[in-house]
Specification:
Distance between the termini: 14 Å
Order of helices and strands: EEEE
Shape: elongated
Structural class: mainly beta
Number of domains: 1
Strand order of the largest sheet: 1-2-3-4
Length: 96
């Protein structure tokens, strides 16, 4: 009836993006203009922790938590926050 399955995973993350493509929208008198260009570099550092457990038969639970610090590495943009880069991401899944 009881299961002793318990797994812990931990990861350290370092990701560096070169030649990052960025999309910029401009509005003109005739409509919207969409331009894609090489916007430069971005880096992300962080940690991730995951726990998976099967305390009893036919019941699983997964917990994951990630912390990341992302930044724009272009000269002059270092202190500007990225438009979408959450610091903490968490997921909880269960299966019966």
């Amino acid at each position: 009836m009881f299961s002793s399955k318990f797994i812990i995973n931990a990861s350290v993350i370092h990701n560096k993006l070169d030649h990052l493509i960025s999309r910029v929208n401009y509005f003109s008198g005739t409509g919207m203009i969409n331009i894609s260009s090489n916007a430069g570099e971005m880096s992300a550092n962080g940690v991730e922790l995951g726990i998976k457990s099967s305390p009893v038969d036919k019941f699983n639970i997964n917990l994951n938590l990630s912390y990341q610090d992302s930044k724009d590495d272009r000269k002059g943009w270092e202190d500007i926050k990225l438009a979408y880069s959450p610091k903490i991401i968490g997921i909880c899944k269960r299966r019966l």
